[in-house]
Amino acid sequence: MGIESLNAMQTATIEADGKDQDIILLSPTGSGKTLAYLLPVLESLDPDSQKVQALVLAPSRELAQQIEQVWRSMGTGFKVNTCFGGRPSNGEKRDLAVPPALLIGTPGRIQDHIERNNFEVNGIRMLVLDEFDKSLEMGFTDQMEAIISQLKFLRKRFLTSATDAVEIPAFTGIKDPVKLDFSEKDNLLKGLKIYSVKGATNDKMELLYNLLCYLGNDSSLIFCTQRETVEKVNAYLTGRHLANEFFHGKLEQPERERALSKFRNGSCTAFISTDLASRGLDIPEIKNIIHFDAPVRVDEFVHRNGRTARMDAEGSAFVLLGVNENLPDFITPVPMAFPLPKLTSAPPKPEWSTLYIGKGKKDKLSKMDVVGFMFKKGMIAKEDLGMVEVKDYFSYVAIKSSKVKDVLLLIQNEKIKNMKTKVDLAE
After folding, report:
1. d(CA 183, CA 279)
2. Mean pLDDT, consecutive 10-residue segments, the chain of 427 residues?
3. Three-state DSSP state, 18
4. In a 3-state reduction of DSSP, which class is residue 214?
């Protein structure tokens, strides 16, 4: 995995796992907590068992997929499957016919599989409730309680949370746990600068656009409190010809994955979202956080800002305020006022563009297959090829925007791994 040594949190977690107690780990997104609990999961697995032995419940599809990616990168040799809503369950049912040692999923979909007897639960010895506070916030209490009530042979319960403010319900079965506190409640991000940006009117669309023009091609994550606002901001910025993507819980899964891929690979630098993107999403190296809508609670403010200035990096957070808007009282100290200069030039077009390929893992397509195809058939130079992401049923590949037309001409009618498929610009 390219990791030379474990961090303090991961080391403490492994030491705590040696005790005959459940574990509560308080830790923010992006701190390495997934590996921290997957190492004890690995230690608990019996290679001779033919049943599901460990279950990880996650509040979002994206987090579930990220956990699976970390597990696969560990090269354990143990089968893993991931189950979540937003896609047909029949394929998941077929995968579960040969039980994985590790099963990862969202509470609603896992409960559905249990009720349909699609896998046996009597082999599950370890349960991980990842980002448990977020699961409670998203309304998964009933589903989690129903699932845990079926797990009669648990030996270890592992709960992660970003905050200590959540009371642990009795249905989790957690009693006298070892608590590891690596939260950031007393440790503000050292590299983070917070500003307030005051507008001349209560319409903040123009204010946002001008700020994005000033920030140029630095990646910016824009938070809104409502899905409707997310879509309005997207429509406005698109109308101003500023490359952006948007994200919220009502989008279909392929749309969510496309938006995330384009932001990750630099095909767009402005990403608009509800608080769903404040935790659990794999979006590295975000430079700016923009609060289009001020958060309602202090923990939301902390989680949003935690998407930048990680691992000693530097980042900025901007709170946009209409002329009659005031800062929430919980934002202390008062952020510095940011005097936004009047700009006329739009930010440059993104350096990268994303191509969609209509084949994925389920078609036995690998990342190296895609890279080889782009080099051989697309005649693309190494420096012109960016991030490649192979999903279950499709793939995304970033290439320099200046090369898109030439590459699409070269690869039309070409087969990838002897398969005919659609290859086009991801819109």
Report:
1. 14
2. 90 93 85 92 96 96 91 95 92 95 97 96 97 89 96 95 82 93 63 88 93 91 95 96 91 89 93 81 81 88 74 79 91 89 80 95 93 95 94 94 94 92 91
3. coil
4. helix
Both 201 and 102 in a single domain?
Answer: no
CB 24 within 8 A of CB 13: no
Q: Is 281 in contact with 62 (CB distance < 8 Å)?
A: yes
Report DSSP letters for 62-92, one per residue.
Answer: HHHHHHHHHHHHHT----EEEE-SSS-SHHH
Q: Is position 346 within any domain?
A: no
Instruction: For residues 311 and 390, state if they share a domain.
Output: no
Domain limits for position 125: 8-181
Which tokens is 381 given? Answer: 């130079």
CA end-to-end span of the chain: 33
Cα separation, 144 vs 111, whole angstroms: 8
Tokens of 59: 């509040």
Q: Going edge to edge, which strands form the sheet with 336-337?
A: 244-247, 270-273, 220-223, 288-291, 315-321, 192-198, 336-337
* 159 in Cβ contact with 282 (< 8 Å): no
In terms of domains, do 382 and 272 share one? Answer: no
Q: Please state, as a whole number, how many other Cβ atoms lie within 10 Å of the Cβ of residue 384.
A: 18
Mark whether 174 and 199 lie in a shared domain.
no
Sign of CA dihedral 281, 283, 287, 290: negative
H or E element: which one contains 208? helix 205-215
Residues 423, 412: Cα–Cα separation, whole Å? 8
Give the max Cα distance, the chain: 68
Q: DSSP labels for 389-414?
A: EE-SS-EEEEEEGGGHHHHHHHHTT-
